[in-house]
Amino acid sequence: MKLGKRIGQGYTAEVFEWGSDKIIKVFRPHTGGLMEYEWRISSQVAGLGLPVPSVYGIEEAEGKRGIVYERVAGPTLTQVIAAKPWRIAQAAGQLAALHAEMHRREAPGLPKQKEMLERRIRETSLLSEDTKARVIERLSRLPEEVRLCHGDLHPENIMMTAQGPVIIDWMTGVSGHPDGDAARTRLVLDYASLPPGMPKPVKLLFTALRRQLCRTYLKEYIRLTGSTMESIEAWLLPLAAARLVESITEEERGKLLELVNRQLNG
């Protein structure tokens, strides 16, 4: 079977049409075993009864190998918010409800959350060895669980289909503590940089919308799960340090370094 039209691309992979109702995610040569890693996670998650794309297998076409997924049609939750900002409270409620439902599942077979965070903290070159040790020590004190965690849940990873919301991009999925997963969502909503070419008025609007989305999401998530703001925020330090190894802007990197220093020395 030949690759269809390319419909998306990123640093690690390209996405092509695969027949009329599927897509194939083809990984770039430099990614090593990332395809098998994502396949293992996506396959386990697909069996847990959540609204996620079906995953069919690994296929080869035109000398390239990739994972075949169900094609999910619809706008992202980000696009819905941009088109109807007055419905942001509803969007925040959907995000919180999906996250709370996810965290009711156990996933002991997935990579461990705290091990993944520690590995990333050790990899960054932006922190001194002493600072890394202090962050890791704080991480070691945090509670452990074996709940299903997405590792990067935010509105861009939720597709709003005709059948309801679908959670995509499970490559960061781990087994861990729900508070850490909610804290990651809070970190992205509060600190992730907007596209650099965005006009200033639009950027100001989106910044305000994200802050409101974050506040409302956290309030609803806490109501649904019985968690607390304090237990969620306890995860911000290791999450901020671990995010420093990701492909983020200089602006966001600076904000995260300030957060790490403030958490350690404040």
Automatic annotation (TrEMBL):
Pfam families associated with the record: APH
Domain Aminoglycoside phosphotransferase span(s) in chain numbering: 5-185
Signal peptide location: none
Domain of life: Bacteria
InterPro entries: AGP_Transferase, Aminoglycoside_PTrfase, Kinase-like_dom_sf
PANTHER family: AMINOGLYCOSIDE PHOSPHOTRANSFERASE DOMAIN-CONTAINING PROTEIN-RELATED, AMINOGLYCOSIDE PHOSPHOTRANSFERASE-RELATED-RELATED
Name recorded for this polypeptide: Phosphotransferase family protein
Organism: Paenibacillus oleatilyticus
